[in-house]
Amino acid sequence: MRPIHSKITEIVEESPNVRTFFFDTQFDEAIPGQFVMVWVHGTDEVPMTLSGKNSITVQKVGDATSRMFELGIGDHMGLRGPFGRGFTIPRNGENVLFIAGGVGAAPIAPLADIVKMRGIEAHAILGARCCDEILFRERFACGRVDITTDDGSEGRSGFVTDQLTETDTSNINRIYVCGPEIMMYKVFEILKARNVHVKTEFSLHRYFKCGIGVCGACSMDPEGLRVCRDGPVFNGGELEGSEFGHYERDSSGRKCRF
Amino acid sequence: MKVAGIELKNPTILASGIMGTTGAALARMGRNGAGAVVTKSIGPVPKKGHNNPSMVELECGYINAMGLPNPSYLGFCEEIGIAKSKTDAPLIASIFGGNAAEFTEVAKRLLSSKPDCFELNVSCPHAEGYGASVGTDPDLVHEITTSVVDAVDVPVWVKLTPNVTDITSIGRAAESAGASAIVAINTVRGMAIDIHSGYPILGNRFGGLSGPAVKPVAVKCVYDLYEVLDVPVIGVGGITCWEDAIEMMLAGASAVEIGSAVHDDTQIFEKISKGIDTYLQKYGYSKAEDIAGLSHEMI
Ligand SMILES: Cc1cc2nc3c(=O)[nH]c(=O)nc-3n(C[C@H](O)[C@H](O)[C@H](O)COP(=O)(O)OP(=O)(O)OC[C@H]3O[C@@H](n4cnc5c(N)ncnc54)[C@H](O)[C@@H]3O)c2cc1C
Ligand SMILES: Cc1cc2nc3c(=O)[nH]c(=O)nc-3n(C[C@H](O)[C@H](O)[C@H](O)COP(=O)(O)O)c2cc1C
Ligand code: FES
Fold first, then answer.
1. Does position B130 have pLDDT exceeding 60, yes or no?
2. What value does the CA radius of gyration of chain A take, rounded to a whole number of Å?
3. What are the tens digits of pLDDT across the range B188-230?
């Protein structure tokens, strides 16, 4: 598909460095966790998970995202998608745990919406550097919400892993995780020790070139799974013994350790 | 089957640039039934490639301008080792450079990882000229091929660009320099523009067309090369099913490479090679080699 020319209809400032852009293009068929390739004309095209049927939630980090922050309502971006494999959807009656770090709350928020709509009980552990950076706290309010901040400005002072260590996961049916890879790997290790990593889904990031499963730039060792197509969501069982938590590759294909 | 000095498991080969940047990805394609795998084109220094969008699906195929992203031979020897340890499909190292010295340096440095063959991508931007590609100049192709053939002890294939007036003169130059096979074609120069914003879609503004749209171009190039060459021709461009592969073989291909079609199906190699076998049986041929170039006799 060619990029869909999409007009920005609303911009919400979520935190000093994070904005949600709403578009006049609606991806009704999108599954939570799927992403779109976002083309910022004249700059670059980068992957962003859909944080809603017609929205992306962007943290400003470099060229393309800084350029997005210069755009206003009425400006356009090109959107291709939805691509990739999203999360599995919890069934009624199941117990769900969300674990999100920083902007990692964006891919999980649409799941929280579903859980809330269906009246499923969920527990969320949301972490960020400081209280200003906790995203979507109202969307995650579908049960218990634990907040951790690195600087102690809200909730528990520390990391989501500190909270997770004290959380009983024996009755949880599905765990959903997204955040910086180091955080996700620590979560993976805790859950693996409890043998519940196979009930856990992680949303991964790698450098995407084609974004459609052809070039292999995003493929992970040792199975050659493509994050853009076979993922970005992977079950913990699929990640055992993989490069996850150890290294990724840059745009030239060179390994970079975490 | 033995083609151009290497023992292929079947006539369907993974084309360069597709699932080719890591050993694990190459091995996965080998396990999925590829008769051999070609790596991403590797050069003398690490390259990030062009800005995205770098590959977009169009109505008729795909357009891409990756910009030859690669970690250089320094990072890639390890990947070839991994690929070789995880699949028994022969490994063909695709390489590029701006001149004969660079091509030869890359080939020599990759030799320690024991690739089964080299494929020279002479379709990359021309460092010594002005924006054209190395592969449009028969003398330069001859010089590069000679230099690499002299430096390595495995077969050397040369992959040609269709963006020339006469592809046969380039094919002849490579053959006379010692190439064991000629691979045709690389992508066809092309461009796509977003009519709503007015921007060319690719980050590099223009790029190369692949997929179904280029198959007739590839069939004609393979047909013409088969006419004038003694070495085998490997056909590539727009193959998505066994019928396409057979068509390419009838035009003159001893084996085929498959690229873009991996988008729709990572199991494509197994499917196409089974289809080829069924066709051969149905028409009473004992091996794939028997149909290479058969259409030339139909007059
Ligand atoms: C599946 C997926 C979903 C994502 N979802 C979100 C999201 O919802 N919200 C969000 O803020 N960020 C998300 N990201 C990360 C986002 O793509 C990068 O922050 C963005 O590409 C940065 O671009 P830049 O030009 O501003 O930064 P640059 O200056 O280009 O680079 C900064 C860093 O961004 C990353 N990056 C750059 N280009 C790419 C690319 N083509 N593919 C992958 N990573 C790249 C690299 O790690 C790089 O080190 C997602 C990434 C992936 C792979
Ligand atoms: C994303 C992409 C990257 C490619 N990279 C290379 C490359 O590095 N070296 C090369 O010789 N050909 C490269 N090609 C060209 C293919 O190997 C092949 O010649 C061409 O795509 C036509 O075949 P197809 O229609 O089966 O894709 C690339 C093609 C695509 C689509
Ligand atoms: S980015 Fe090309 S295969 Fe995933």
1. no
2. 17
3. 999 999 999 999 999 999 999 999 999 999 999 999 999 999 9
Interface membership of B17 toward A (CB under 8 Å): yes
ipTM of the complex: 0.94
CB < 8 Å to B51, chain A: 43-45
Which residues in chain A are contacts of B69 at CB distance < 8 A? 209, 217, 251-253
Burial of B256 (0-12, 13-18, 19+ CB in 10 A): buried
Q: In angstroms, how far is the first alpha carbon of chain A from the final one?
A: 34
pLDDT digits (tens, 9 = 90+) for A134-180: 999 999 988 899 999 999 898 899 999 999 999 999 999 999 999 99
Q: How far apart are CA B174 and CA B188, in angstroms?
A: 20
Average pLDDT over residues B41-54: 94
Within 10 angstroms of residue B1's Cβ, the number of other Cβ atoms is 14
Kindly report the protein residue whose alpha carbon is nearest to atom 32 of ligand 1.
Answer: A62
Q: Which residues contact A192 (CB under 8 A, 6 or more apart)?
A: A236, A240
Q: What are phi and psi of B105, to 5 degrees?
A: -60, -45
* pLDDT recorded at residue B297: 95
Distance CA B212, CA B193 (A): 19
**CB within 8 Å of A163: residues ≥ 6 apart:** A125, A127, A146, A148, A156
Name A251's Cβ contacts closer than 8 Å, sequence gap at least 6. A207, A209, A217, B48, B49, B69
Q: How many CA atoms lie within 13 A of B283 on its CB side?
A: 12
The whole-number pLDDT of residue A121 equals: 87
Q: Using alpha carbons only, what angle is made at residue B185 by residues B184 and B189, rounded to the nearest 5 degrees?
A: 155
Q: What pLDDT, on the 0 to 100 scale, is given for residue B127?
A: 55
Tell me the whole-structure pTM to 2 decimals.
0.96
A84 ligand 3 Cβ < 6 A: no
Instruction: Name the minimum distance, in Å, from the CA of A246 to any CA of chain B.
Output: 16
Half-sphere exposure of B266 (CA within 13 A, CB side): 21
B77 is annotated as an active-site residue: no
Q: What is the mean pLDDT of residues B17-23?
A: 96
> Who's near B53: CB < 8 A, 6+ residues apart?
A3, A37, A39, A45, A78, A80, B201, B202, B203
Q: Cis peptide before A32, with omega less than 30 degrees from 0?
A: no
Q: Which tens digits make up the pLDDT trace of A54-81?
A: 999 999 999 999 999 999 999 999 999 9
Round to whole Å and give the CA distance between A248 and A229. Answer: 16
CA separation (Å) from B99 to B78, B123, B159, B162, B164? 25, 12, 15, 20, 19
The Cα A187–Cα A190 span in angstroms is 5
Distance, first Cα to last Cα, chain B: 29
